[in-house]
Amino acid sequence: MHHATPLIGTIVAGLVVAFLMGALAQRLKVSPIAGYLLAGVLVGPFTPGFVADASIANELAEIGVILLMFGVGLHFSLRDLMAVKNIAVPGAIVQIAVATLLGMLLSWFMGWTPIAGFIFGLALSVASTVVLLRALQVRNLVETERGQIAIGWLIVEDIVMVLALVMLPPLARIATNPDGADFMMVAQPMAATLFKVTGFVVFMLLIGRRIIPRVLHWVVHTGSRELFRLAVLAIALGVAFGAAFVFEVSFALGAFFAGMILGETALSRRAAEETLPLRDAFAVLFFVSVGMLFNPNVLVEQPLPLFATVAIIIVGKSLAAFAIARLFRKSTKTSLTIALSLAQIGEFSFILASLGTSLGVLPDEARDLILAGAIISIFINPFLFTWVSKAYAKIEASDPSPAADTNRGHIVLIGYGRVGQYVAADLLESGTDLIVIEDSPEKVAGAVRKGVETVRGNAVDAGVLEKADIDQAAQLIIAIPEGYEAGAIFQRSRSLNSDIKVIARAHSRDEYDHLKKLGLTQIVLAEEETAGRMLALLGTP
User: Fold this and answer.
1) Distance CA 202, CA 209 (A)
2) Which of these, 81, 262, 453, 465, could form a disulfide with 470 (CB 3.0-4.6 Å)?
3) 490 neighbors 502 (Cβ within 8 angstroms)
4) Residue of 431, 428, 492 lying closest to 454 (CA atoms)
């Protein structure tokens, strides 16, 4: 490799190894996140072979956080944020306090200083933006009440961490030089940070709310899709960088507000679609960068402290969040979602650990425990989410009331696009029992307005098919235009209901042949049907 290509080498190594490990994880029916983390370990400095540039990987990962938070903001209005403030603000603060105290208790047993314990506990209290959002997105929970509470909770945590990063240097000076310490050393920087955060929010609501939609509307009227895509990325990255450079708030918070402002316009859906491929790619690089930090020697050198650290992250934080949500009279399902979403740590934890060690107040072993705890909690989180979700579903299924119809015999229609809408209209007119699966919120809203029973999500996910009672369905119509995706849906549906009759679309002979090989016999090939209809009309007098 040429010596002047560390950026290219890092991107290529990160994405290629992540693909291989992610594919292996998928094959083993394990969360792909586990594969991405393992990829980071493989290209990291603690394993033999190629070593990617960690500093470049971290900056690429930061872009992923920006784009991800921007995408969340597109689906999260200011009204939604204010609607959950009553639980998100006190909940996040109390949960941070509980986790910090638990971390300080462990640090006391380890013989560290109080300031080291404070930083250590604080690092264990804040969840990873990427992991939380990925968990919610995979389960289609972002726009639900429990998803919005979890995201609002995360935003409050981010604001608290911004304050903490400003507060730590003067606290470190107080800890190392108690004779010269005074209250103003802490109060002044904290007040300045609060002023800057408030200034940024006011700026976005008063000025950004006017400028951003106008710029994007002007761009869309040019008719250039390329320019529109560039404008969306420029807004996301530009506002995030400006927020950090001018107002000294986090990139993630800046990008979230930019997305939230843009989300109030009619162009939000298109903006979300245009940024989705980059969001996914850079989110993968985030997990790779986290994996590069993991030193496997920690597992041997500090097993008990590491176990206690992971217990604080997964058990202590989760119990605190669950108890707080229940105190606010949220359902058990909502409380579990919030608790599990927060049962991991990530990017802010790394920043706090780096700052603490650079200030000379956090021992290296504490930093290693934070990094190892992050890796393990991120690895475990998807499995924990899946296990608890299945356990809760079994409990609900065993509930004798209300009694379920075990032989419903309905039709499941996947896709409510142009073809799906025609199919649904005819089926509903004939009085057919129908459930539609669709992942577009706009199309779901349209189906609901017409009285169609809908399940929102990607039908490739077996959990989404189960929500549509696929095991009780008589027939499945796959109306989406992607033939290869239809094949995956066919296999999932047959694994859940071996007797179901399946009809699918194909847009090319290759897709048709692919579906045939999988065992699907009822396939509609668009070009063939069109040609047949034309020939039929040709013979009509």
Assistant:
1) 10
2) 465
3) yes
4) 428
Residue 46, CA distances (Å) to 43, 54, 95, 457 in order: 8, 12, 34, 39
CB 263 within 8 A of CB 76: yes
In this structure, are residues 328 and 91 in contact, taking their beta carbons and an 8 Å threshold? yes
Tell me which amino acid residue 431 is. Answer: G
pTM tops 0.90, yes or no: no
In angstroms, rounded to a whole number, what is the distance separating the alpha carbons of residues 274 and 534?
36
For the packed helices 268-292 and 225-246, what is the interaxial angle rounded to 10 degrees?
A: 60
Q: Which residue has the tokens 């850079």?
A: 282
459-477 pLDDT tens trace: 877 778 888 888 888 899 9
Sign of the CA dihedral running 69, 74, 78, 82: negative
- Selection from 135, 45, 52, 51 nearest residue 371 by Cα: 45
458 secondary structure, DSSP code: -
Name the burial class of residue 447, with classes exposed (0-12), middle (13-18) and buried (19+) by CB atoms within 10 angstroms of its CB.
Answer: buried
Q: Smallest Cα–Cα separation from 309: which of 164, 158, 121?
A: 121
Whether 481 contacts 505, CB under 8 Å: yes
- How far apart (Å, rounded) are the C-alpha atoms in residues 541 and 263? 54
Kindly list the distances between the CA atom of residue 113 and the CA atoms of 125, 175, 176, 297, in Å, as whole numbers in the listed order.
Answer: 19, 9, 10, 24
Between 362 and 162, name the one with better pLDDT.
Answer: 362
Q: Residue 158: CB partners within 8 Å, gap ≥ 6?
A: 126, 129, 250, 252, 253, 348
Give CA angle at 337 (126, 163), nearest 5°: 20
Specify burial of residue 449 (Cβ count, 10 A radius: 0-12, 13-18, 19+): exposed
CA separation for the pair 339, 509 (Å, rounded): 48
pLDDT at position 402 is 47
Distance CA 270, CA 29 (A): 32
Indicate left, alpha or beta for 272 from its phi (over 0: left) and psi (-120 to 50: alpha).
Answer: alpha
Q: What is the DSSP letter of 295?
A: -
Give the Cα separation of 339 and 329 in Å (integer): 14
Give the helix/strand (H/E) hosting 93.
Answer: helix 85-110
CB 50 within 8 A of CB 271: no
Q: How far apart are CA 124 and CA 316, in angstroms?
A: 10
Residue with tokens 């993968």: 284
- Residue that wins the pLDDT comparison between 237 and 55: 237
CA dihedral over 416, 422, 425, 430, signed as positive or negative = negative
Q: Are 498 and 480 in contact (CB under 8 A)?
A: no
| pLDDT tens, residue by residue, 282-306 | 888 888 887 887 778 888 888 999 9
Pick from 327, 345, 336: nearest CA to 87? 327
CB atoms inside a 10 Å sphere around CB 462 = 15
